Amino acid sequence: MARRRVTETEADDLPRYFVWVRGLEGPEPQKWMAMDFGVGDWKRPLVLAYLELPEGERHLPLSALARRYPPPRAEAS
To answer: Is the pTM of this model over 0.85?
Structure first.
């Protein structure tokens, strides 16, 4: 499959943040458009780690980002 270049307007539409959230079976990767935690910051305890992606990495699939930026180590309980 041929790769095509991402234009500036398309780059603005791509998620800016790579986020590890607390899932039912451990850390789960997600891509977010903004670090908006919503009313009362109810999402904040679910976020384990986040990274603002460089423009050149915003087009990468979630699986590639998860390999590049592994989940944080589990907390000792």
So the answer is: no
